[in-house]
Amino acid sequence: MKSILTNTLLVAGLLLLTSCPRLRYFTVQAAQEDIVVEAEDFDRFPIGEIRNWYNNQWTPEGLQDADPDHGEGAVGSYLEILPDTRQTHADPLIHGENFSNKPGVLGVLEYPIFFKTPGRYYVWVRAYYTGTEDNGLHVGIDGEWPASGQRMQWCGQPNQWHWESKQRTEEEHCGVERQIYLDVPAAGKHIVQFSMREDGFEFDRFLLSMRYQRPKGQGPVKSKLNHSARLPD
Ligand SMILES: [Ca+2]
Ligand SMILES: [Ca+2]
Ligand SMILES: [Ca+2]
Is the C-alpha dihedral spanning 196, 198, 201, 207 positive or negative? Predict the structure, then answer.
């Protein structure tokens, strides 16, 4: 009986996410301006995968997750990729399920953005992690996953919302500064995308900036959505 109830709630949660109106609007940047986007304002991600992103305000019961809600301190709401079956180093690591060193495989989120200025943008993400197995993410652009967007890493600031922009490397597991960026080749619409590296990751918002400077506190107000520029289906 309990499993039927759990499954019903899970399906209801997925339907709720599926049926939510998609954004279908550009996030618009003025020339030279930083771009700030709420994680929960994604345009789309495939539902029903091995791992799904859940809005903390609608997360159904029954998904494996050791953490309590961390909505306090987040801006609006946040996304968490669940279930989280690798919660500690002692839990089995299953490539392509609870971990993916390869980007673009699990939990791909997409955000359409209109860039007025092409160039190199550092990617900052505000995240909440509680251990060493929920603190990794990948970022890419226009379906590509460049080396400069792989293995975003959080380190040394657990149990709080924290902005970071560092890349994990063989030599430096805590991450290296200035190595996480996207090169925007031309002005116009581009799709910025994120994908899972570790399950249980909690994602509040992101910032794209030509300057490498950690935002303070919750960060700037989010960028405007252009309601006159609907995307084609
Ligand atoms: Ca995990
Ligand atoms: Ca978590
Ligand atoms: Ca948020």
Answer: negative
The CATH class given to the 2-226 domain equals mainly beta
Helix H segments across the chain?
A: 2-19
What is the distance in A from the centroid of ligand 3 to the CA of 56? 10
Query: Which of the ligands is closest to the CA of residue 80?
Result: 2
How much is the pLDDT for 226?
77
Please report, for the chain, the start and end positions of each structural domain, with discontinuous segments joined by +: 2-226
Q: Is the pTM of this model over 0.85?
A: yes
Q: How far is the CA of 11 from the centre of ligand 1 (A)?
A: 22
Neighbours of 79 (CB within 10 A): 26
**What spacing in Å lies between the alpha carbon of 228 and ligand 1's midpoint?**
39
Mean pLDDT in residue range 164-168: 98
How far away, in angstroms, is 153 Cα from ligand 1 center? 13
**Which ligand is nearest to the Cα of residue 199, counting in written order?**
1
Q: How far is the CA of 70 from the CAs of 74, 86, 197, in angstroms?
A: 7, 19, 20
Retrieve residue 213's tokens.
């400077």
Task: State what percent of residues in the chain have pLDDT above 70.
Answer: 86
At residue 44, the pLDDT reads: 78
Q: Is the pLDDT at 3 greater than 90, yes or no?
A: no
The Å distance, Cα 73 to ligand 3 centre, comes to 9
The pLDDT of 56-77, averaged and rounded, is: 93
CB 139 within 8 A of CB 166: no
